[in-house]
Amino acid sequence: MEAKIRNAKAIALKNARLDDPFWGRYTRLVTEKLLPYQWRALNDLVPGAERSGCVENLRVAAGEREGRFHGYVFQDSDLAKWLEAAAYSLTWRPDPALERQCDEAIELIGRAQEPDGYIDSYFTIEAPGAKFRNLRQGHELYVMGHMMEGAAAYFDATGKRRFLDIMCRTADLICDKFNTPEFSAAYPGHEEIELGLFKLGKAAGEKRYIDMARAFVERRGVDPDWFAREEEHPDYVTVWGRGGLDRLYHQCHLPVREQKTAEGHAVRAAYLYSAMADIAFEYGDGSLLHACETLYGNIVDRRMYITGGIGSSGAGERFTADFDLPNASGYAESCASVGLAMFCRRMLTGTGDGRYADTMERALYNTVAAGVSLGGEEFFYVNPLEVWPESCVEGTSMEHVKPVRQRWFGCACCPPNIARTLAGLAGYAATENGEDFRLDLFISGRYKTPMGEVEVRTRFPFEGNVALKIEGGGGRLALRLPGYVRDYAVLRNGERVEAELRDGYLYLSGPWDNDTVEYRLEIPPVFVWADTRLRAAAGRVAVMKGPVVYCLEEADNGTNLSALTVDTKAGLTEDYRPELLGGTTVIKARGWRDVDDPSGGLYRFDEPQREPAELTFVPYCLWDNRGPGEMAVWVRRG
Amino acid sequence: MEAKIRNAKAIALKNARLDDPFWGRYTRLVTEKLLPYQWRALNDLVPGAERSGCVENLRVAAGEREGRFHGYVFQDSDLAKWLEAAAYSLTWRPDPALERQCDEAIELIGRAQEPDGYIDSYFTIEAPGAKFRNLRQGHELYVMGHMMEGAAAYFDATGKRRFLDIMCRTADLICDKFNTPEFSAAYPGHEEIELGLFKLGKAAGEKRYIDMARAFVERRGVDPDWFAREEEHPDYVTVWGRGGLDRLYHQCHLPVREQKTAEGHAVRAAYLYSAMADIAFEYGDGSLLHACETLYGNIVDRRMYITGGIGSSGAGERFTADFDLPNASGYAESCASVGLAMFCRRMLTGTGDGRYADTMERALYNTVAAGVSLGGEEFFYVNPLEVWPESCVEGTSMEHVKPVRQRWFGCACCPPNIARTLAGLAGYAATENGEDFRLDLFISGRYKTPMGEVEVRTRFPFEGNVALKIEGGGGRLALRLPGYVRDYAVLRNGERVEAELRDGYLYLSGPWDNDTVEYRLEIPPVFVWADTRLRAAAGRVAVMKGPVVYCLEEADNGTNLSALTVDTKAGLTEDYRPELLGGTTVIKARGWRDVDDPSGGLYRFDEPQREPAELTFVPYCLWDNRGPGEMAVWVRRG
Questions:
Q1: I need a surface site. Which of A11, A425, B174, B571 has the fewest CB within 10 A?
Q2: Cα–Cα dist B192/B279, whole Å
Q3: CB-CB: which of A300, A399, A596 is closest to B532?
């Protein structure tokens, strides 16, 4: 691979100060709402929310309190993700009080850690004799991986080594244990340790940890029956019951290079593919990179919702089959789109190919952004493309779909995942390689780059103009040209210039001296159709503007959105509405509404009439901020 | 209620000899395939099928074998239903060998019965100390109810009292036990005993049993927490786990007269409503009848599939909400449509209103008939309106949908239910009240009626002519005029006559003397639309001919049925094809197929093209007899 790509890195958080009209609301939420709210939740201080028990568990594990473990077996990871998010926020908003909270939490983790480096309060409290004996369900490596990610982030943000040192002891334990003959073929049931060991290895300068991450990736699926056989060990303790191993669910049906389709639990899969990308680029492994590209292609061409959601089945929170993407019953877990963005970020960094940025952007501006309310205290775990509240009945096949965001969840992996993604958003925005600066997402801010400071000003995604000022230096400026842009222009110091288009980026060369660049992207509202094999979109159309998927809501269009048909011949109009949903562009279409006599019986021999109707679309990521009601992304077309 | 209606009864099976081109295939299957095959299955003699253990359990309960109970807690009911089906078949096809099998099975039941009358092999073998302590899950009363239905049927068919006497001892036990103070508010978790006690009471001339059936109906939901409190008893033993009582699921959220919507598990609901109808008519209870009418209306107007299927959620096998009838993920259990037909049969008998016959017919000619393959050895448990085999993946939200019929099921309630319905089909076909004869379904055969023999000849549902010959007597002949018939004529001895239309029936008066009646029904193929609130049918249309719902299959139309749009302006043509699917009318339409470039990406900015296409529809009940493939009832309209 080219040297330039090999040196590429996502921009360091401390080298970016975002100040964006679209994302600013979300990033402000991190420090104003998400971090304080989640801290209270983890400490069981939120009235009306399901109890977390996360911090309390660690106190019990540390021997400071009596009690039983509470919550899911992976509860510790909520604190790890909180620390990661907090660390990221400290890079752009120093906060001594927050930093003290973090330091105290880290100390608690240190006390809960066992002398050999083991850290996982569930097993420490409830099943100390069964450590690593249930890799399928135990989530120990998952917890440790998230702790490692938190430690690396905190070290990067503050320079403090305490968390790093704690987790290096854990990593040492893992490197010892998982290279013994007994565990030499073992791999985790929920991928994550691979990502944590990689980050920790980079932060601590320990290649051993990165080699261990690689080993976990390489071993996966070579022995597809590990999770069945571990049940035979006398120390095995079950968490959710024995038997019934589903290899696809755990992506252990085949060695990773032989996996051609995205299978199983979507979050596990996305984390695995992200780790595969880490390893492929680290070791220059062409066959592993090829596997990543194959899996990426399967997702993007056949198994991804238009909103960047992945996981089409509520049961199993998983992939199902090519082109099977049901609108109402789908899953599209917030965590899974975070994972998809992570995977794309790595592929983008490693290859410089803008198509990965298109997908990363699609996931971030839609499913990930949809995951949190405007108020910042309610979250979606499941992100369907069509919601009809009356049909979301408890005890039925739709009970996984909550038609309104929830304050907290018993299984609370999504809110902290959203928080760490928003807090670390700048890392998705740009790339640099010591010479060049590449703008991957159109997010306003000031970036410290090889060309000095680059200031970016834009009102994207509501407007397509991006204004840049480049301080100096000789490197190249690469501006992403998204796949959805039909027309664009680049002006340098007011003059139109031609730029070289390579792999989805427009390259402008230096030298620079306080130059201004104006990048004009045409991003009108457009209709979008799906491949005819995507059955859930047959006879339907969606509306997008730039990367933003739009939807109908009951608040604007009345009940029974299924009665509406949009006239794709009549065009779309857009209108920025500052007072609506925190300020957003609304898109309108013309069409029809079916009408019939409600007393005519359920099945009839006469076609319904239809009357002209105006259809109003709002961004999918802003839905459910005006009270419960129907929503639909794919609308009948006629 | 009118005296005429009060005396009405479904025609006795021994008074009907069916010989029908449509149903003949199914009824022949009963004796040629279903009964022998199911007998082998119940005796664990079918290679490749899931083990039943049914007969073996009874041998163990009788103390004749060692062993543990095998199967679901209600496994005994499979034999009861088999006996009921066998009994019905003996009324129209005497078979000494079959009768001997029945007698032996009945003797075994007698030996498995405990001295106090208790009969339920699960509890006898596994939990004798917990009898009636888990009414929610134990299914004892369910088993006993089916045994009672079998006993009444066998007595009616053969005159033999043995089974009747066995079950009268059980009924005596129930009447004693459930009138003690401790159990005076109790009712079963799965309704069925109400139906069994009623039938047994009628057959044995014991009003006490009918009063007990009434009591179970009246008590239901008066104490909505019975199933929660029974868990506190020291003798309580769980079957599927404690807690999590869902009152809607068990229709015990309210007393039955206060229930306005069809809720919960669809089979339980249908059996309850059938029992409510039995009791309402038996006791002349107007308020209970009103409750039946309300629930019937809610089902037919808001919660029933066009195929007469009920139960829209795989999870819980249950009703969900008004107008929520998803096509692919729905449930529409075969047993539930049997239950709906049972409910309608009772309402029809009691009120004489033809709309109940329309619904009964819809369920029988579609979901119930679809439940068994042409070969008679494969069954559908779940009857969706749209199937795409690739999406029916294990471990996902679609795993309840099997895209092909199965040889047997671990939970085998449906095949025996289908068998007893087909064996007793004549009971659905006509009604008499000692004076008049009413033809409710158009099924060829010879009926013994108050007007002597009435012979019916028809090729319905493929042709709309029904030819009758009435032997003699003075009563009235009532011919149902289905709601879907637009045009008809009645000829008597070749001359057109006007007949009085009342409650959906055309009445012709006697006297009769070998008169011929020709009843010509116009039943062309037609398009059918749904109420616009039925979201799953928005922008779609179905095709029917008479009561038969049609569907597209992959075998005729290729893959990806969602790419097809039917032109509702272009009309439909029909064509009887004797060589296809055992002989059936095929319906053709014109329309279009979407085409696009498969390499164009999953989401695109260009609309697909479409090319003209011919669409071929076959009866829904005959789908999946030509190998696995896609199927769809609701087709895009344009």
A1: B571
A2: 13
A3: A596
How many helices and strands in chain A, by DSSP H and E? 20, 24
Residues B60-96 as b/e (b if ≥16 CB within 10 A, e otherwise) read bbbeeeeeebbbbbbbbbbbbbbbbbbbbbbbbeeee
Q: What is the 3-state secondary structure (H, E, C) of B141-179?
A: HHHHHHHHHHHHHHHHHHCCCHHHHHHHHHHHHHHHHCC
When CB atoms are compared, the residue of A398, A560, A602 closest to B530 is A602
> What values do phi and psi take at A528, rounded to 5?
-130, 130
Which one of A303, A397, A557 makes the best mutation probe of the B interface by having the most chain B beta carbons within 10 Å? A397
Q: Is residue A418 located within the same domain as residue A454?
A: no
Q: Can you give the CATH number for the domain in which A458 is found?
A: 2.60.40.1180
Q: Does residue B66 sit in the same domain as residue B116?
A: yes
Q: Let me know: does A437 contact A458? Beta carbons within 8 Å.
A: no
B596: left (phi over 0), alpha (psi -120 to 50) or beta: beta
What residue has token string 């193929």?
A: B525
With CB atoms and an 8 Å threshold, state whether A321 touches B390: yes
Tokens of B146: 């089916």
Mutation target for B interface from A401, A602, A604: give the one with most B CBs within 10 A. A602
Query: Which residue range(s) make up the domain with A85?
Result: 52-244
State the catalytic residues of A: 317, 413
Residue A579 has pLDDT above 90, yes or no: yes
Closest CA to A441 of A474, A478, A471, A492: A478
Q: Cβ contact (<8 Å) for B563 and A318?
A: no
CB contact under 8 A, A563 and B532: yes
* Same domain, yes or no: A291 and A402: yes
> Which residues in chain B have their CB less than 8 angstroms from residue A328's CB?
326
Kindly provide the ipTM of the predicted complex, given to two decimals: 0.94
Q: Do B395 and A318 touch (CB under 8 A)?
A: yes
Minimal C-alpha gap between B14 and chain A (Å): 36
Say yes or no for a CB contact (<8 Å) between B602 and A531: yes
Instruction: Determine, for residues B602 and A535 on separate chains, whether the beta-carbon distance falls below 8 Å.
Output: no
Chain A residue at shortest CA distance from B301: A602
Q: How far is B527 from chain A (nearest CA, A)?
A: 6
Q: How many domains does chain A have?
A: 4
Q: Please identify every residue of B annotated as catalytic.
A: 317, 413
pTM, full prediction: 0.95
A321: chain B residues, CB-CB within 8 Å = 390-391, 393
**CA-closest candidate to residue A446, choices A455, A437, A438:** A455
Cα–Cα distances in Å, from B542 out to A595, B322, B522?
Answer: 18, 20, 19
Q: Is residue A419 part of a domain?
A: yes
Mean of pLDDT over chain A: 96
Residues with Cβ within 8 Å of A395's Cβ and at least 6 positions away in sequence, in order, are B246, B248, B249, B315, B316, B318
DSSP for A321-366, please give it: STT---TTT----HHHHHHHHHHHHHHHHHH--HHHHHHHHHHIII
| Nearest CB to A395 within list B246, B321, B535 | B246
- For residue range B52-63, list pLDDT tens digits in order: 899 999 999 999
Locate A580 and state its tokens: 């609506």
Query: Comparing C-alpha atoms, which of B495, B500, B485 is closest to residue B516?
Result: B495
Residue B375 included in any domain: yes
Query: Which chain A residues have a beta carbon less than 8 Å from that of B532?
Result: 560, 562-563, 594-596, 608
Same domain, B458 and B542: no
In this structure, are A487 and A566 located in the same domain?
no
B502: β partners: B505
One domain, residues B211 and B79? yes
Q: Do B603 and A528 touch (CB under 8 A)?
A: yes
Model pLDDT for residues B251-286, shown as the tens digit of each residue: 999 999 999 999 999 999 999 999 999 999 999 999
- At residue B1, does pLDDT exceed 70? no
